[in-house]
Amino acid sequence: MSKRDKTTDESLCPISRNPKQRLASNVQTDAIKANFPAGLARPALRALVAAGWAGGRL
Fold it and tell me: Where is this region: Disordered (predicted)?
């Protein structure tokens, strides 16, 4: 049996599991959102924040 089959109903994603962490992440992504093309999904913005991108051209 794989590990995936053994998981509980709880999400493994810390942002989904922790509202405080999600709000902090939203603040960070909102701060850089205007620097990127419209329609860029929040998970993509989170990845850019994690990579250290603050704006500019993609």
Answer: 1-20
Could you tell me where the DSSP H helices lie in 1-58? 14-17, 19-32, 42-51
- Cα separation of 51 and 57, whole Å? 14
Cα torsion angle, 33, 36, 42, 48, sign? negative
If phi over 0 gives left and psi between -120 and 50 gives alpha, with beta otherwise, what is residue 55? left
Residue among 54, 47, 53, 55 at smallest CA distance from 15:
47
